[in-house]
Automatic annotation (TrEMBL):
Keywords: NAD, Oxidoreductase. GO terms for molecular function: D-lactate dehydrogenase (NAD+) activity; NAD binding. InterPro entries: D-isomer_2_OHA_DH_cat_dom (IPR006139), D-isomer_DH_CS (IPR029753), D-isomer_DH_CS1 (IPR029752), D-isomer_DH_NAD-bd (IPR006140), D-LDH-like (IPR058205), NAD(P)-bd_dom_sf (IPR036291). The lineage of its organism: Bacteria, Pseudomonadati, Bacteroidota, Cytophagia, Cytophagales. It comes from Fulvitalea axinellae. Belongs to the D-isomer specific 2-hydroxyacid dehydrogenase family. This is Lactate dehydrogenase. Residues 3-327 form the D-isomer specific 2-hydroxyacid dehydrogenase catalytic domain.
Length: 329
């Protein structure tokens, strides 16, 4: 089987080559998949894509024209795919439903701890022989209320970790996780979660119903000074309205691993370039904002799991076996 990979980095090649026991012919393209680059898929049996590759109707039509019948998403989310179009064209989609929910949950906690105790600032200060504690005050997590929006695999692990800090966990989800209910987690309406929480962490998928779930109205419902964490998908948050919330002090701190307009920025070294995105530039100017570039998943365990599962998905497809990780819609 010949597979063309899009948006690849050195670590993709490293892990996929290591676990390619099937002996597939893998070609690694650095370019992101979009209409202009779709023709790189010519001559392959399958393609493999990541979170910011574009799989809209135009791209899918081109891929179908080149004979691509299966797309292996080496990620969990599939919000970047026009599912109706894929169905119409008879393209099979397989994904990696869970690679390391611990990695993402732990990264959300890392954002909270860093923003709260300002260790990133302390690190730089001390290296500069500045041993002052001025403006490094944090707060005890013990006793605080943490609102978890989306209590699936990642949200549930995140809730457990935060319980370990002595936090009270409140949750909002369209489905109540029985394990969390057993642990005494209280489910409530989104509005109540927002009014009660000192920290709000987003772990729901990006769907039409969750697009801009954090907006002008929901920000107003949040406690003044609350911390907002997003390790899920950028468009869950209306970034411009969050900036207004930060300017007014209503949002006390913001930690994001995902960003609404991340496609043109994340996973690239732009240190010698002029960044023309004024929204991220404004976000970066706040002392109480911490941004990481979609690295929550980035652990050895997760990369191993992504490579093994993706290759197994392609093997199952190739052998005509039942597809356990097919995106069903
Ligand atoms: P999951 O499917 O196990 O859980 C998602 C939860 O969200 C489910 O409990 C579901 O019922 C709930 N949900 C669905 N619609 C909702 C709504 N309208 N409001 C509230 N909750 C709703 O998924 P997961 O593995 O926990 O992953 C969660 C998200 O994390 C993914 O969708 C993905 O966007 C993101 N993610 C980010 C990274 C990263 O590196 N930053 C890595 C992996 C996943």
């Amino acid at each position: 089987m010949k597979v063309a990979f899009f948006s690849t980095k050195s670590y993709d090649r490293q892990y996929f080559d290591q676990y390619n026991s099937q002996g597939f012919e893998l070609t690694y393209y650095k370019v992101r998949l979009e209409e202009e680059t779709a023709e790189f898929a010519k001559g392959y049996d399958a393609i493999c894509t990541f979170v910011n590759d574009r799989l809209g109707a135009d791209v899918l039509e081109k891929l179908a024209g080149y004979g691509i019948k299966v797309i292996a998403l080496r990620c969990a989310g599939f919000n970047n795919v026009d599912l109706e179009k894929a169905k119409e064209l008879g393209i099979t989609l397989v994904r990696v439903p869970a690679y390391s929910p611990h990695a993402v949950a732990e990264h959300a906690v890392a954002l909270i701890l860093t923003l709260n105790r300002k260790t990133h600032k302390a690190y730089n200060r001390v290296r500069d022989n500045n041993f002052s504690l001025e403006r490094l005050t944090g707060f005890d997590l013990n006793g605080k209320t943490v609102g978890v929006v989306g209590t699936g695999k990642i949200g549930a692990i995140f809730a457990q970790i935060m319980r370990g800090f002595g936090c009270k966990i409140v949750a909002y989800d369209v489905y109540q996780n029985p394990e969390l209910l057993e642990q005494g987690v209280e489910y409530m309406e989104m509005q109540d979660l927002l009014t009660q929480s000192d920290i709000v962490s987003l772990h729901c998928p990006l769907l039409p119903s969750t697009y801009h779930i954090i907006n002008k109205e929901t920000i107003k419902m949040m406690k003044r000074g609350a911390m907002l964490i997003n390790t899920s998908r950028g468009p869950l948050v209306n970034t411009k309205q969050v900036i207004k919330g930060l300017k007014s002090g209503h949002i006390g701190a913001l930690g994001i691993d995902v960003y609404e307009m991340e496609e043109k920025l994340f996973f690239r070294d732009l240190s010698e370039k002029i960044v023309t995105d004024d929204v991220i530039a404004r976000l970066l100017s706040f002392p109480n904002v911490l941004i990481t570039s979609h690295q929550a998943f980035f652990t050895d365990e997760a990369l191993t799991q992504i490579a093994k599962t993706t290759l197994k998905n392609l093997e199952d497809y190739n052998e005509g076996r039942e597809l356990t990780n097919e995106v069903s819609f």
